[in-house]
Amino acid sequence: MKKEGDLSKRLGRINLKLIFIGVVVIIIGLVLMSVGGISTEEVFAEDIFSVRRIVVAPMMVFFGFLFLVFAILYTPKTKA
What we know:
Layout: H1 7-11, H2 13-34, H3 51-73
């Protein structure tokens, strides 16, 4: 049976940097989705229906996950 190397040897340095960027984009999207006004029984915060929370943040999370797939599958061009 072939011995498998650790994660950094299988993916490569560039892949790990790209994965880190993708995770940061996802975290920023989740923070944008969660930060804002909180609606209670006494006060209605209209910020929960803002474009940032409904459109921008989910798109950032979605594109972050797409970028993660790209980062995992990316193979750098070799100099021949």
